[in-house]
Structure formats: C-alpha cells, structure tokens
Design a protein that fits this description.
Elements: H1 2-24, H2 27-35, H3 42-50, H4 55-67, H5 74-82, H6 87-99, H7 106-114, H8 119-127, E1 130-133, E2 137-140, E3 145-157, H9 168-184, H10 189-194, H11 197-204, E4 214-229, H12 230-292, H13 297-317
Antiparallel strand pairs: 1-3, 2-3, 3-4
Helix pairs in contact: 4-5, 4-6, 6-7, 6-8, 9-11
Amino acid sequence: MIAYLSSSVIIILLFIVIILFLHFVPLGLWVSAMAAGVRVGIFNLVGMRLRRVVPSKIVLPLVKANKAGLNLNVDQLEAHYLAGGDVDRVVDALIAAERAAIPLTFERAAAIDLAGRDVLEAVQMSVNPKVIETPLISAVAKNGIELKVRARVTVRANIDRLVGGAGESTIIARVGEGIVTTVGSSEEHTDVLENPDHISRTVLNKGLDAGSAFEILSIDIADVDVGRNIGAQLMTDQAEADKNIAQAKAEERRAMAVAKEQEMKAYTQEMKAKVVEAQAQVPAALAQALRDGHLGVMDYYRLKNINADTHMRENLAGTGMPETDEQDGK
C-alpha cells in the first residue's frame, strides 16, 4: 500500500514538473520558429518567461517579419514590448511600408507607436489618403450676409512628423479659420456663391499643414448655404439700444421735473403758511399799537378805508380775493 502511494506521489510530482517545464520552456513555439527559419534559442524563450514577456508576442511577429524579408531581431522586439509598445502592429506597419516603398525604420515606427499614434493607420493613410469633413462653419461677408460652409479636407499622413505633429482637430480648426477669413474679406456674399473654389485656393495657399502630422492634398467646398442678415440684425439691435437709452434719459428728465415741481409746491405751501401766520398777527399788532398810543383812531379808520378801496379795485379787476375778517382787522 505504501509503495502504491509512493508511486502515485512520484507520478503526480513528475506531471507537475513537466507542466512547469512546458510553461517556462515553450517547446511548441520554439519548434514553430525553427520551422519558419527564425533562429531563437530555447534559453531566450526561458529568459522571456523570467522577464515576464509573453514569448508568442515576440516570436510570432518575428516570424511574420522574417517571412516579409525584414531584418529584425528578438532584442529589438522584446525591448519595444517591455516599453509598452504594440509589437505586432509595429511589424504590420513595417511590412505595409515595405510593400508601399515608404521609407520607415523600426526605430521610427517604434517611436510613433510609443507616442500613442496608430503607426499602421498612418502607413495606410500614406497610401490611401483620408478625407476629413469639417463641421458647418459660419462666416459673414462684408455686406453683412452670413454664409454657412462645409468643407472636405483630403489629407495624407506625414510619417516624419507623426511624433510631435498636430492632429486632425488642428487641421479642422485651421481650415475653419481660413474659411472665415476668406468669406470675411469678400465684398459681397454672392462672390463666394459664384466662385466657391476661391475659398479652396485661398485656404490651401496658407500652408495650414505646417507643424501637423498630415499633408493637405486638397480642400473641397461641399456645401454653401446663405444664413441670416447679420448686418441688418446688428443695426436693428443698435437702434433698439439707442431707443432704450433715449427712453431712459427722457424718463430721467421727467423724474427730475416731477421732483422739481414737488419741491416748488412744497416751497409755495411753506410761503403761504408764513403769509397766513403773518396775517394772523396783524390784528394783534394793531390792537397793541392802539393800546400803546402808536396808532390813533383816525389812522385806524384811514387804514380801513385804504383796504376797502384796494379790495374794491381788485374785485373790479377780477383778481381780488374775498374779504376776510382778518383782512378787515376784525
């Protein structure tokens, strides 16, 4: 029984050792590489496992590159893999560039890949240019008419400027700027409608692809629509603003006039009150003058006659006030 258990344990241990050996030593991948004519040492594959590199990510692209006639080695691909690059895509880009007679070295392709750009797409775009359609761009001619323009930009990838070059959004922004400038310099919007290719020529001559990762091949105007009359709308808005300012100033003057009128009314009321107060003191002053002997009886009656004559004259003239007891000295 003990001998049976020992044999089972040995078999299990042997099975585990074989599995670990095949894991660290990918014999199948080594045989495939040797069959394809790629010289990869078995110890190199074991070293890849120890360096946490997936051997298939290196060997299979190497086989593909070897069959395409590219002169690549294991160290180059492994270094790019450890740097975080996509080895398979870089090899595919190199093969495509080789077939299209585009000068592209492994170092340049690896740098483009590590920069975050799709190197294979860039090579394909160099062979088959890409069409970028701009959004609807609004521009205003000198006569105030708005034009809405949509353009199609045909670009080709510039391999030498893919690292550090501006992207598609920059191209779209520059083309939009050129359209706005060209339309804005036109005297009449009909000039643009009659010759939309004038926009293409003007924008293309500005060298908009400078510093970008693309080379602009052509700019075609896809659509031109007439929009609003911006000039008339601005004049209307200005007139409305002037009217509001004038109304505000008129309201300010009216309020000042009302305030002045109220002030004058208050002043008049105050003066009337003082006159009434002074008139109320006249009888007391006359009585005091009579008591003190400063005014005689005849003088008093003479004053009464003068007042009566004055009131009569005022009544005849239509400007007199009704006679009151205070005015009679009573």
